Amino acid sequence: MRYAYGVAMALLLGGTAFSIATGPVGAQTAQNAPMAIPPSGAPMSFANLADRVMPAVVNISTKQKVQVRRTVDPLEELFRQFGAPVPQQQQQQQEGRSRETGSLGSGFIISADGYIVTNNHLVQGANGTGTVDEVTVTLTNRKEYSARIIGRDPLADLALLKIDAVNLPFVRWGDSTNARVGDWILAIGNPYGLGGSVSSGIISALHRGITGVGAYDRYIQTDAAINMGNSGGPMFDLAGNVIGINSALISPTGTNVGIGLAIPAEAAKPVIDALRRGEKPERGYLGVGLQAVDEDIASSLGLPKNRGEILRTVQPNQAAAKAGLQQGDVIVSVNGTEVNPDQTVSYLVANTRVGSRIPLEVIRNGRRMTVQVVVGQRPSEEELAQQLGTGDEDAPQQQEAAPASESLGLGLAPITPQIARALNLEGGVAGVVVTSVSASGDAAAKGIQRGDVILAIQGQRVSTPAQVVAAVQAAKRAGRSSVLLLVKRGRSPEGFIGVDISGD
Q1: What is the phi/psi pair of residue 162, to 5°?
Q2: How many CB atoms lie within 10 A of CB 6?
Q3: Assign residue 256 a region: left if phi > 0, alpha if psi is -120 to 50, beta otherwise?
Q4: pTM of whole model > 0.90?
Q5: N or C: at which end does the chain have fewer Cβ atoms within 10 angstroms?
């Protein structure tokens, strides 16, 4: 499981695994084959539904050997200080130590020949790359199988496993698009190693976002008990259809407080189908860095807040660049759908067919326009990491004194070759460097630091402090209460920050 408090996420793994035997299981008929659906309202009991679907829910355990970082023995350090040699065998034992780690979670069988759906974070390597060494699947009749990882998708947090068996109980996908807030649901899994645990609740919310970004930040929220070890387990509707995969929770304690989250079947099934075919899941891609239009950015651009997203970067030779999109453009709709916190650009584009041509409604310099874009294929996470690179957030210790922009609460100076080297800036970066930040100013509150580089203000590139001051004065004359800065730190991608200027 992944645990979230605010926007923080952590894997929910743990407990001592054991499983509870159930009655006879079916063979070639789905465990959730059609049957009489309970009348609307609270059912008298979930027992019949649990009996039908529980045999298709499995426990998943993994093992992996990881290297243990060598710790210095205090006695060894003392001996070294006095020149006493440390035996080579002891050194080798300390440097070559490893330990076994693992995880416990849940999954469900989707075919009689042993295909199993679960979460990727259960089978991903301990260091975030690769996979675990062993995966064991335990059925409700206590039979254990060694499982192969057929495919996995870290972005969706989904994985497909396969065990060598036949005539297994299995369940089918349901249609999560028909789910409604208030519908009853059933969750079955392996919380804290307590295999075959059933909990019930209702759908508390649909399309729940917890990070604000990404193609899969849309969960089904439930008040059913979801705990460590429920990862990868199914969420059933009252007809016995799988409408979600229990994957995360929001909690200040790491245990259930009534806010569990499941990946909707509508998002999970296409990914699992692609993995089963041996294909890479297709996701639309523009090749842009995005920021939500918060209150300060909206004020600086004269736009309503929480409507649209601003392009902070546009990658060369990708779909957006080929269509003529520019840094600072605000995308307000994708293929006719308004962009807002519930319908983000990344979500809308990722779920658009690769190669399709769609209209984007864009605001550029206050003018509304429509741009036609051919949607590209999203690169792998490794390729994206290489494209974005890593940022160096260390500012130089000494910088040349410079005139101050009182309106922004910043001291500014032109970029010299010496400053560019000290800030680890890429060649050709033009702008003004922040030499001091007023602790009482809004810029400090927004996170601007000494050593940051202001590349542009209100969409206009700057290279001298005087240009920044002039842009602030122009914004005031236009009645703006804030200005939009394009800021870069080290080799990190640049981003937009709205800074209040109304207090001067």
Answers
A1: -140, 130
A2: 9
A3: beta
A4: no
A5: C
φ/ψ of 138, rounded to 5, equals -115, 125
Q: How far apart are CA 426 and CA 452, in angstroms?
A: 13
Q: Are 348 and 339 in contact (CB under 8 A)?
A: yes
Residue 61 has pLDDT above 60, yes or no: yes
The three state secondary structure string of 368-436 is EEEEEEECEECCCHHHHHHHHCCCCCCCCCCCCCCCEECCCCEEEEECCHHHHHHCCCCCCCCCEEEEE
Q: Hey, what domains does the chain have and what are their CATH numbers?
A: 1-32+46-278 (2.40.10.120), 284-388 (2.30.42.10), 404-500 (2.30.42.10)
List all residues 6 or more positions away from 290 whose beta carbon is below 8 Å from its beta carbon: 213, 309, 310, 311, 312, 331, 344, 345, 346
The percent helix, strand, coil of the chain (3-state, each to 5) is 20, 35, 45
CB atoms within 10 A of CB 217: 17
Is 340 labelled as part of a ligand binding site? Answer: no
| Residue 157 marked in a binding site | yes
Provide the token pair at 27. Answer: 């063979």
CA separation for the pair 249, 247 (Å, rounded): 7
- Strands annotated E in 93-241: 98-109, 115-118, 134-138, 144-146, 148-153, 158-162, 184-189, 197-208, 219-222, 234-236
Q: Where does the pLDDT of residue 59 fall: very low under 50, low under 70, confident under 90, or very high at 90 and above?
A: very high
Q: Has residue 236 got a pLDDT over 90?
A: yes
Q: Which amino acid appears at position 148 of this protein?
A: R
C-beta of residue 435 within 8 angstroms of C-beta of residue 401: yes
Judge whether 170 and 162 are in contact, CB under 8 Å: no
Is 256 marked within a binding site? no
335 annotated among ligand-binding-site residues: no
Neighbours of 453 (CB within 10 A): 22
Distance CA 108, CA 140 (A): 11
Burial of 54 (0-12, 13-18, 19+ CB in 10 A): buried
User: So which residues are the catalytic ones?
Assistant: 121, 157, 231
pLDDT range class, residue 169, cuts 50, 70, 90: very high
299 labeled binding residue: no
> Rounded to whole angstroms, how far apart are CA atoms 361 and 326?
13
Digit-coded pLDDT (tens) for 174-221: 999 999 999 999 999 998 888 888 999 999 999 887 766 667 778 999
